[in-house]
Amino acid sequence: MACSVADSGFLFLVPNRRPIHSTRINQLASSGSYCLKWESLPQISSKKKCCLISSRKRNVIQAVAVPIAPSPLDSAEDRKQLSGKYGFRQIGEPLPDNVIMRDITETLPKKVFEIDDGKALKSVLISVTSYTLGLFMIARAPWYLLPLAWAWTGTAVTGFFVIGHDCAHKSFSKNKLLEDIVGTLAFLPLIYPYEPWRFKHDRHHAKTNMLHEDTAWQPVWKEEFDSVPALRKAIVYGYGPFRPWMSIAHWWLCHFNLKKFRPNEINRVKISLGCVFAFVAISWPLIIWKTGIIGWIKFWLMPWLGYHFWMSTFTMVHHTAPHIPFKNSDEWNAAQAQLNGTVHCDYPSWIEILCHDINVHIPHHISPRIPSYNLRAAHESLQQNWGKYLNEASWNWRLMKTILTICHVYDKEQNYVPFDEVAPEEAQPITFLKKVMPDYA
């Protein structure tokens, strides 16, 4: 296509002998040229040789054929390289745009949706027994073995959370009143109000990895990061070395403020808050009376911090990676977000047992109605039918290092830009993590 500006102030566009529908005319603001697509130009008869478009300025427009760069996820070789770089076992290929959630759920066997009260009771017994054992270990262990006892007990009490999590999704028991009672009780040792968490978590499932809407992790916005210089260091620490405990901030900021809930949710929220406050008012003084402040730290605070480590780690590993995008609502695709945007991660067996397979997370996002004790069977089905689209990993140092040192500030093209590129002078904690964290997968 030849382009020129005549002295009369009109722009003459003369098409080549063959239309080039893939041609793009790049806009370069500094040079005053404009971005046009051949398809967007007025259609003219093939007998005409040119068209006239009024132009107020004499700006020279150069037509340049710009190839569209393929996504690095389109190539199997590129995905393999990214898998090794990020600590994944497999990075799934992009799910076609025409696939909808129903296409995926219909491939799951019906048995994975079946609720079994016997299996539900078994999960309760596992959590109660392992938590009781953990408290016994804390009471008997010498000081140098206390970290191991805290790690075990914190993981065991995370199982309580998963039980309440199933109750919130109505996948724990056929008796729905029993689900609300068990869910509320399971959350009490964590000082977590059940109903507020349930309402927020439902929105996470409905808007997974949607910008502004997902109630779990959100990337940092550069505009907000730049607008609050006094808080930059806190944000860097929060999304860097302290990220495995950032669920504490989420717990406190999102679940105790009545203004964050809809009017029809308020009564149930108040009931849950009342239960939590009553539990604190009774249990904490008893613990302190029997064991002192040091006992409260040993028996409650340290396991609670262990629980939040897993709460934060599971959540960020499930949905955070350099290749997994957050999208605006007008671009968001439910099937892509739930299947392509969720990560299956294997952990040591004892962690998976105590946490009731919450790490088998992709089927849970395909349908939250699948009970935790059926997640493995559902995942096997997904592997058979949709295996090439799945993101899978084993928990490792490189995976954690990738999340903690790269997945920071939102960028539409790159998904994430690390802090040390956005604000190098503020990013010493990230630089430190890059140096000290092991890099093996």
UniProtKB/TrEMBL annotation:
Q: Where are the transmembrane segments?
A: 144-164, 269-287, 293-310
Give the primary localization class: membrane
What Gene Ontology biological process does one annotation of this record name?
lipid metabolic process
The answer to whether the entry has keyword Transmembrane is yes
Q: Which Pfam families does the record cross-reference, listed alphabetically?
A: FA_desaturase (PF00487)
User: The Fatty acid desaturase domain covers which part of the protein?
Assistant: 142-389
InterPro entries cross-referenced by the UniProt entry = FA_desaturase_dom, Fatty_acid_desaturase
Arranged from A to Z, the UniProt key words for this protein are: Membrane, Oxidoreductase, Transmembrane, Transmembrane helix
Q: Where does it localize?
A: Membrane
Report the GO molecular function annotations.
oxidoreductase activity
A cellular component term, taken from the record's GO annotations: membrane
Query: According to the lineage, what is the superkingdom?
Result: Eukaryota
As for family, the record states: Belongs to the fatty acid desaturase type 1 family.
Q: What is this protein called?
A: Fatty acid desaturase domain-containing protein
User: What organism does the record attribute this protein to?
Assistant: Anisodus tanguticus
Q: Lineage in the entry?
A: Eukaryota, Viridiplantae, Streptophyta, Embryophyta, Tracheophyta
